[in-house]
Amino acid sequence: MEGPRGARIEELEEIVKLSNRVFRSNIEGDMGREYPLLFSEKNCENLRIIKEDNKIVSLVGIIFSEVIILGNRIKVCMIGSVATDPEYRGRGFATLLMQDSILKSLQEGVDIMLISGGRGLYRRLGAINAGLYKVFHIDKAKLSKSNLRVRKVNEDDIPKLLRIMELEQVRFLRSYEELKILLRCSMVVNRPGEVLLIEDNNIPLAYMAIQLPRAQGEMLRIKEIGGSRSALVDSLYTVLEIYNKDSLLLDTLNSDTEIGYIMEKLGIRGEDRGFEGTVKIINPKSLMKKLDDYFRRMLGEEYKDFAIEFNPPITIRFKDERIQIEENNLPALIFGSVEKKIEIPALRGLSRILSTLFPIPLVDYGLNYT
């Protein structure tokens, strides 16, 4: 066995073929074309592989990125294209590569690992489904026409898109070049997709990244939004006209209270969902340090009586009250979770402090799915 190790440039073609055999054997598509940031010469070191019998038999793909969450800049890694040749499964190769990916990510200063899947492999390593999101089913009959212009973006629109994105409180940090690559691949969360710009008198107001149906009966689904929520909702009638559909799904962060308020006025209630994959906090101490200014702002004078200790299990204290949290449960406490509820002891002060601080929003994949 050779590895785990980073891939070499000359191995990139073989890696894409392995990923296609595993993920595109039953559907059209090419992983290399659909995920150009992942399968690039620049990212080869982060394509972690194992070779056996002189061929690549197992892969874990990593992309490193930074996100903004409530003014805090946090480094994340996205794990995807976890693939093992069917003839070599059951030998623990994927587990070795996931462990290697955690070590590699820690070396790169990552705090949070976002994994595009929920299989037992990830859960055995301590990842859980965390994050709180809403899905709204919107029928055309609930909407009204507007005079807003809705059109597909082109590369000349990248500065306009970036300006709208930069105003979002919870987002991936994207460079001009990264966004250009993401737009060219025309994929939105593992589906063919498009990005639409909403304008009024040539003034850009909002955008949406929308999944296109792959088969008869599939719905349009908006997976990322930015900008004016009112303009975005006002544009939805036109969007349904463009695609000749009677309804669509809109995914938002649970913390997006403006969308929630607008939907409520339209008589539309959202359904709760979790992150489309699993989440692992691989460096709790670093993450909490980056959130410390947020804690200080939220708690005011009471901040002096608040402390977090990192000797396992993690202990959170407020005055003489304390609660212990296993590291694997930390994402559910910090970001909330639809699958795991953290039981908080009936401690009057600490319960109040924790409900003040948490949950905080977690980024959703959108254009950055890996």
Task: Explain what the structure shows.
With 370 residues, the chain is α+β, with helices and mostly antiparallel strands. It has three domains: 2-110, Gcn5-related N-acetyltransferase (GNAT) (Aminopeptidase); 133-273, Gcn5-related N-acetyltransferase (GNAT) (Aminopeptidase, 3-Layer(aba) Sandwich); 284-357, no CATH class. Helix content is 29%, strand content 30%. The chain has 13 helices and 17 strands. The chain has helices spanning 12-23, 31-34, 93-107, 120-124, 158-166, 176-185, 229-234, 236-243, 257-265, 284-290, 292-299, 330-335, 348-357; strands at 2-6, 47-52, 55-69, 72-84, 112-115, 133-139, 149-152, 170-172, 193-200, 203-211, 220-227, 247-253, 271-273, 278-281, 306-309, 314-318, 321-325. Strands 1, 2, 3, 4, 5, 8 and 14 form a seven-stranded mixed β-sheet that branches. A seven-stranded mixed β-sheet has the order 7-9-10-11-12-6-13. The longest helix has 15 residues, at 93-107. The radius of gyration is 22 Å and the shape is globular. The mean pLDDT is 96.
Number of strands: 17
Query: What is the assigned CATH homologous superfamily of the largest domain?
Result: Gcn5-related N-acetyltransferase (GNAT)
Look at the helices and sheets and give the structural class: alpha+beta
Instruction: Please write the string of helix (H) and strand (E) elements.
Output: EHHEEEHEHEEHEHEEEHHEHEEHHEEEHH
Q: In CATH, what is the class of the largest domain?
A: Alpha Beta
- Measured by DSSP, the beta-strand proportion falls in 25-35%
> Uncertain regions: pLDDT < 50 for 5+ in a row?
none
Quaternary: single chain
Shape annotation: globular
The pLDDT mean sits at 96
Assign the CATH topology of the largest domain.
Aminopeptidase
Report on the biggest sheet: 7 strands, mixed
What is the end-to-end distance?
27 Å
Helix content: 25-40%
**CATH architect. name of the largest domain:** 3-Layer(aba) Sandwich
Rg = 22 Å
**What is the number of helices?**
13
Q: In total, how many domains does the architecture comprise?
A: 3
